C-alpha cells in the first residue's frame, strides 16, 4: 500500500493498494489531523535617532509580528565598546508583538553606522536597518557634495534622496539599480547631480549645485534599499549667506575697534593721571625747599 506524499499538503490522503486480493477486503479508516501554525512575519522595521530620553539614542521598532523576533545591534566600523541595548516586547489583544529596542549613542564616535538586526525563531529572512547622521555647512552659490555611502553588506541596492525643512518631505531623486538610471523631481533637477557610475559601488553622494540659504537649508535623507535591508543617512545641511557672514564679520570688526579705542583711551588716561601725580609731587618738594631756604 502507498499514498501520494506530494498530495498530502493538498488534503489528498488516498491509499493505493497494489496487487490486491481477497485478503485485503474490509473497512479502511483514514484519520486526518490538521495542525494550524500561525505566524505574522516582519513586514517592515524602522530605525531613527531619538532625543526624548534626555540623551541621544537609536530606536529600532518592529510592529505587529508573531512570534517575537530576536533583536541584535552592531556598528560599522565595529567598535570594541560593549553595546548595551534595552529591548521591550509588548503583545496586544490579538497576540501580535511590538518590539522596541534602544541603544544609547557611543561617546566620541560621531560617524558610526548603527545597525539593528531582527531574526525570527522560525527561520525567516534576517531584517536589517542601519542609520548614520551628520551635519555639514555650505555657502550660497558654491556647489556642495552631501556624502552618502552604503555599508558593505548591501549589494547593488536602489537609492532614494529626499529633503525636509520642517514641512512635508519632498522627493529629490530615485536611482534604479537594475537599469542604472536616475530620475530627479522638479525643481531639484536643476540643483542636484548624481554620479550613476559610482552608485553600484556604494557611493550615493549628491552634488548640490548653486545652493541658496532659504531654499536648501534643511535635512537631506539618503536611503539605500533592497529586500529585507535598508540603510539611511540623514544629513543636516546649513547653507550660509555670505552677505550675512560678511555683515557679522564687519560687525565684530567694529566692536573690536571700539573696544581697542576704549582700552587705548583708558591707558592714556591712566598715563596722564600718573604724570600729573608726579608733577604735583615735584611742586610740593619745590615749595618745601623754598620755605627751608627762607
Description:
The protein has helices at 5-8, 213-216, 242-293; strands at residues 45-50, 57-65, 70-76, 86-91, 97-104, 113-119, 127-139, 144-146, 158-164, 170-176, 181-184, 192-194, 206-208, 218-226, 229-240. The protein is of the alpha+beta class and 294 residues long. It has a domain at 133-242: Immunoglobulin-like (Sandwich), CATH 2.60.40. The longest helix is centred in the last third of the chain and has 52 residues, at 242-293. The protein is elongated, with a radius of gyration of 37 Å. The mean pLDDT is 86.
User: What is the third-level CATH name, the topology of the domain at 133-242?
Assistant: Immunoglobulin-like
Write down how many β-strands occur, each being a DSSP E stretch of 2 or more residues. Answer: 15
Number of helices: 3
Largest sheet: number of strands, sense, barrel closure: 8 strands, mixed
Mean pLDDT: 86
> How large a portion of the residues is in β-strands, by DSSP E?
35-45%
Q: In brief, what are we looking at here?
A:
The chain has 294 residues and is of the alpha+beta class. It has a domain at 133-242: Immunoglobulin-like. 20% of the residues lie in helices and 35% in strands.
Amino acid at each position: 500500500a502507498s499514498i501520494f506524499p506530494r498530495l498530502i499538503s493538498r488534503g489528498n490522503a488516498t491509499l493505493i493498494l497494489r496487487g490486491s486480493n481477497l485478503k485485503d477486503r474490509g473497512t479502511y479508516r483514514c484519520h486526518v489531523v490538521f495542525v494550524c501554525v500561525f505566524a505574522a512575519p516582519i513586514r517592515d522595521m524602522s530605525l531613527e535617532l531619538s532625543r526624548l530620553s534626555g540623551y541621544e539614542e537609536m530606536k529600532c521598532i518592529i510592529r505587529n509580528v508573531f512570534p517575537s523576533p530576536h533583536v541584535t545591534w552592531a556598528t560599522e566600523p565595529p567598535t570594541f565598546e560593549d553595546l548595551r541595548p534595552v529591548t521591550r516586547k509588548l503583545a496586544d489583544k490579538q497576540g501580535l508583538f511590538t518590539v522596541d529596542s534602544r541603544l544609547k549613542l557611543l561617546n566620541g564616535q560621531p560617524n558610526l553606522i548603527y545597525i539593528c538586526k531582527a531574526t525570527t525563531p522560525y527561520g525567516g529572512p534576517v531584517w536589517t536597518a542601519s542609520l548614520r547622521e551628520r551635519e555639514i555647512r555650505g555657502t550660497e552659490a558654491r556647489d556642495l557634495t552631501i556624502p552618502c555611502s552604503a555599508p558593505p553588506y548591501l549589494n547593488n541596492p536602489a537609492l532614494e534622496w529626499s529633503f525636509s525643512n520642517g514641512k512635508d518631505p519632498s522627493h529629490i531623486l530615485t536611482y534604479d539599480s537594475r537599469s542604472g538610471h536616475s530620475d530627479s523631481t522638479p525643481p531639484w533637477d536643476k540643483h542636484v547631480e548624481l554620479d550613476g557610475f559610482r552608485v553600484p559601488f556604494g557611493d550615493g553622494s549628491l552634488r548640490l549645485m548653486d545652493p541658496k540659504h532659504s531654499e536648501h537649508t534643511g535635512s537631506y535623507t539618503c536611503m539605500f534599499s533592497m529586500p529585507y535591508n535598508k540603510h539611511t543617512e540623514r544629513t543636516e545641511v546649513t547653507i550660509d549667506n555670505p552677505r550675512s557672514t560678511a555683515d557679522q564679520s564687519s560687525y565684530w570688526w567694529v566692536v573690536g575697534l571700539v573696544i581697542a579705542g576704549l582700552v587705548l583711551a583708558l591707558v592714556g588716561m591712566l598715563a596722564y593721571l600718573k604724570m600729573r601725580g608726579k608733577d604735583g609731587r615735584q611742586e610740593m618738594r619745590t615749595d618745601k625747599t623754598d620755605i627751608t631756604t627762607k
